[in-house]
Design goal:
The protein is of the alpha+beta class and about 80 residues long. It is about 55% helix and about 15% strand. The chain has 3 helices and 3 strands. It has a 3-stranded antiparallel sheet with strand order 1-3-2. Strand 2 and strand 3 form a beta hairpin. Helix 1 packs across helix 2. The radius of gyration is 18 Å and the shape is elongated. The relative contact order is 0.14.
């Protein structure tokens, strides 16, 4: 069974980003996380990481669609 919560190191590995980038995502609230324990270490719920990845895919699809609609591709008026 996969763990419910991931460390920031796990997030860094799964997203192939730096520790600073992972901390920035958490601190901005873009990637929801909680602080636990006496030292307040960050934990990201695995489901939240998956939801974040899905949001990023959706954002990319929207951006690509918008770029295509703004003249990217075959123009009929050439």
């Amino acid at each position: 069974m996969a763990p419910r919560f991931l460390t920031l190191a796990d997030v860094v590995e799964q997203l192939n980003i730096s520790t600073a980038q992972a901390r920035a995502l958490v601190r901005s609230g873009e990637l929801p996380a909680i602080q636990v324990g006496g030292r307040g270490v960050w934990r990201v719920e695995a489901a939240e990481l998956e939801a974040y990845i899905e949001r990023k895919y959706a954002e990319n699809r929207e951006r690509v669609a918008a770029e295509r609609g703004l003249g990217g591709g075959d123009d009929v008026d050439r």
